[in-house]
Amino acid sequence: MRTPASWVVVGLDNGGTTNNATVLDATGQYLVDRLVETPSRVREGPSVAVDSLATAFEGILELTGTVRTLVRAVGLDTPGPASATGVISSKGATNFSQREWWGFDIRGALERRLGLPVVYTNDANAAALYAHHEYFGDSATGRSSVSAIVGTGLGGGVVQDGTVITGAAGMAGELGHVHIPTHGLLEEGQPMPECNCGFEGDAESFASLTGIEKNLLPYWLTRFSGHELASVDIRKAAKLLRGYGERDDPLARAVFEQQAKAIGRLFTIAANVTDPHAYFVGGGVVEAAPHFRDWFLATVREHTLLREEQVHAATFALVPDLDMAGARGAAVAALDSVQRPL
């Protein structure tokens, strides 16, 4: 634990069950080195959830011994879809399923509640931003990166010169919904994967927990007759699959290899669009056993087709500190907003 050298920003990571908070000072040092979680209460509606975010804010100040008057801005991230300014999608979202959330301005509501500037970033972009700054350090503002965050869906982030690219409507970096070439990726007779967004053959339909449950595992169970997961509810089986992969189970390795190849194809597209300095992979694979996550990342790299010049210029890495990456990335965005010249 550290005390602030001068003024600070606060990062708040809002999730389906908990909020995580951190404090970042003007020198770029975090004042807390662990998760600091409180209930998010998002299922109780916007008013209760905003109060819960305010509670997380006050709690992290008390924990770090930070005087409120030192706080210049607050960074907030939430799951999407949401606009670049923090308005939850008018069609709703997985974590914000109640109708009163649809079109709700969570950033503006928190700003009014705290009386401080609030800077919004979606959760995948926040993780991507943290990975970028943590990896590149002092040279972050002169580098670019692309991140794929594998979770229930496939989040992503594109960072250029140390800043997340948001786009006109805030939807830039939605890498999960980029269509990828499937020739040579699908096995003979394997159905075209479907995404919950309505697309077929996008990256998320392969590389996500939902993709495993809905598309990959049902197919691969037909190829491994008698596998013990065949008798398990498909939702539960999908969640158990990573543990099997860590034990080198052939079925699990086949599923995750297909996921890794899909991300490689996604990164190949990115290589020809943004030509980044780094490709980051985050999500459940980061939390897996080291031998498994290293194998997964190596497979992604093997199937990312780069030109010779790009091979020498780019690197592949895992998103660090994933459980804290959202709050820390939100704090980085807030710090940048304070330090950015007008």
From TrEMBL:
It holds the Pfam family ROK. InterPro entries: ATPase_NBD, ROK, ROK_cs. Coiled coil: none annotated. Signal peptide: none annotated. Belongs to the ROK (NagC/XylR) family. This is Glucokinase.
